[in-house]
Structure formats: structure tokens, C-alpha cells
From TrEMBL:
Domain HTH lysR-type: 37-87
Gene3D superfamilies: Winged helix-like DNA-binding domain superfamily/Winged helix DNA-binding domain (1.10.10.10)
UniProt protein name: LysR family transcriptional regulator
Transmembrane segments: none
Organism annotation: Rubneribacter badeniensis
Single GO MF annotation: DNA-binding transcription factor activity
Family matches, as InterPro entries: LysR_HTH_N, Molybdate_resp_trans_reg, WH-like_DNA-bd_sf, WH_DNA-bd_sf
């Protein structure tokens, strides 16, 4: 196996609102935060799990919500956070598309490296 065949492509997906004035996108970072909230029930725990300050995670969520014009999280103060229905749907769609594109990219890369 050549050194080239050992390499692996990485797909970077983002979801945007074409009408938004902001450059904020739903990408890997937001998806990771949302997954953390889904798992832990807390934005603070999700942020800590990523080595990120809660204030930064909060700002990223708010900026993305504004850019997408939808609410991703329901926040209940000391009782944690949970994804909204829209947050769940966009996260699930993002993960499914990313998985499919990643598989296709790996197959195409392997084909081209032969």
C-alpha cells in the first residue's frame, strides 16, 4: 500500500440560511455542541466536554440561532437544556448527510488512489 492510499479525505459540511446577514453556519462545531446537549441535557456540560467556556458555547448557539432564524435549544436555567424539535431535526439531517458524504468521499479517494 502506498503512502497515498493510507490517507483519508475529510468532508466539511455546513448548513446555512441564504437570507441571513450573518456568516454563522450550522457546521461540525455546532453539531458537536448539540450532540453534547442531547447526551448530557446541559449546554454547560457539552461545552466543558469540548474544552470550551460556557459563555463561548452560549454565544455560538445564539449566533447560529439568529443566522438560521430558528431556535436550536430550549434552556431551563439550572435545569439544563434540550434540543428543540427543529434542533433535533437539523442535527439528525446534518449527521446523516455528513455520514453519507464521508463514505462517498472515502470510496472515491480510494478509487482515485489505485
Amino acid at each position: 500500500m502506498s503512502k497515498l492510499e493510507k490517507l483519508k479525505p475529510t468532508v466539511r459540511l455546513s448548513i446555512m440560511n441564504p437570507d441571513a446577514e450573518s456568516g454563522s453556519l450550522f457546521g461540525r462545531g455546532i453539531a458537536s455542541l448539540c450532540l453534547g446537549v442531547r447526551t448530557s441535557g446541559s449546554l454547560n456540560a457539552a461545552a466543558k466536554g469540548m474544552g470550551m467556556a460556557y459563555s463561548k458555547a452560549w454565544r455560538i448557539i445564539k449566533d447560529t440561532e439568529a443566522a438560521l432564524d430558528l431556535q436550536l435549544l430550549n434552556r431551563d436555567g439550572a435545569h439544563g437544556s434540550q434540543l428543540t424539535e427543529a434542533g433535533d431535526r437539523i442535527l439528525d439531517a446534518y449527521l446523516a448527510i455528513e455520514k453519507k458524504l464521508q463514505k462517498q468521499a472515502e470510496e472515491e479517494f480510494a478509487r482515485l488512489m489505485k
